[in-house]
Structures are given as C-alpha cells and as structure tokens.
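User: Let's play a game. I give you a shape written as tokens, and you guess the letters that built it. Ready? Here's round one.
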C-alpha cells in the first residue's frame, strides 16, 4: 500500500462523500458503500448509519482491509478502532442526526486517516441481497442507479415514466411497487402514471395493464 500525498488527502477531505469497500476473505472487493465524510485536522471521518449492525461495519470486523475512492483517487486501506480522537470536533463536523455512532480509523499506507463510520441507509438491493449476490447489488446501485439514471439526456421523471411503462409491458408488476413511488419522487404525478398504464392497455394487453393498475392503486392509496 502507498501513502497518501497531502494533495490527495485534501482532495478526499474536500469531498462530501467517499466510496468504501471491504475485502472478502478471498481477496475480492465487496460492493462499494457511499459514506458521508468530513475532515478534522489530518483525519478523515466517516460513520456507520446502522452502527454495528451495518453490513460494511461487520465486513471490516471480519477482515479489516479494503479500498476507498474519492476526489479522483482510490487507495487500499486497513481499518481499526480509533484512539485519542477529538469526538466533539467530529460531531460538530457531522451535522447529520445519526452522528453519535461507532468509530473506525482508516490507515492508508503510512499516512493515518482516522474515521468514524456513518454510512448512508443501505439500498433496497443491499437490504434484499447483501452478501448473497454482491455483484447484482453492485451493478444495481453503481451501474444502474449510480450511472444510467444520472445521465443528463433524460430527466429522472422521464426515466421513471419509461421504466414504469417497460415494467408494465413486461408484466413485471412486482417491481412497480418501488418504481411507481420512485416516479412520484422524481416528479411524475399519480394522474400521469395512471394514464400511462391505461394507455399501455392498448399496446401491452389488458391483463398486464390491470395487474399494473392494481399495484398503482395500492401504492397511491397507501402513500
């Protein structure tokens, strides 16, 4: 492992977030987790949203080695519980409500970077599959939602309408539970989504539209 230069440390410290992943026992990387990061002095601090129950936290307890990437740089790292850290200063830097959780220290080569873990809420894919299908979680979170959904050529609202239409036409009503609510979060109205499903009845077939509308009714009436 190589040590970080002051420039690299400043670049990572200036980022709002960093991506962090632990190594599996076989040496492969687990999926990256995006974590809020703050810099206090020469230390970079992150905190586990779920405390000791967090998947990432538990993974580094089993093997305290991994990799972090932020500010255009990626480095291998080892993890240990910190000692003699200014927790008040860290708490002041972390304005998020989940700030008083378990602490970690990250050492990058010879340059120590102290860290308290405060990860974002795990994604739906991570909650469902976690270590069972880490590659699928990675491609879902990083490839699909992390890259494809963020391309500027289409707005999130338009992508949601397209996705809802595709799921309806494909008969994948189970996936609509998430995507109809996600479409609302992205700016689509209930009226637009209901009309889209109604329109699709002529092209995708009545059974698929009826199944999709049943999901929409459940989502919209309970949201």
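Assistant: Ready! My guess for every position:
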């Amino acid at each position: 492992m190589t040590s970080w230069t002051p420039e690299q440390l400043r670049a990572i410290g200036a980022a709002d977030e960093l991506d962090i992943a632990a190594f599996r026992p076989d040496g492969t990387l687990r999926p990256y987790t995006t974590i809020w990061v703050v810099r206090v002095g020469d230390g970079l601090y992150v905190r586990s949203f779920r405390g000791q129950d967090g998947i990432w936290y538990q993974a580094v307890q089993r093997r305290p080695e991994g990799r972090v990437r932020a500010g255009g740089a990626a480095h291998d790292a080892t993890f240990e519980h910190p000692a003699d850290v200014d927790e008040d200063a860290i708490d002041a830097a972390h304005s998020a409500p989940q700030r008083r959780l378990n602490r970690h220290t990250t050492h990058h080569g010879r340059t120590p970077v102290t860290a308290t873990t405060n990860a974002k809420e795990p994604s739906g894919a991570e909650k469902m599959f976690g270590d069972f299908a880490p590659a699928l979680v990675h491609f879902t979170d990083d490839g699909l939602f992390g890259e494809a959904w963020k391309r500027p050529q289409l707005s999130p609202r338009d992508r949601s309408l397209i996705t809802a239409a595709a799921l309806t036409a494909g008969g994948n009503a189970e996936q609509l539970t998430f995507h109809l609510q996600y479409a609302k979060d992205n700016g689509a109205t209930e009226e637009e989504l209901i009309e889209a499903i109604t329109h699709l009845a002529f092209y995708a077939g009545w059974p698929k539209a009826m199944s999709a509308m049943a999901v929409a009714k459940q989502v919209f009436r309970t949201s």
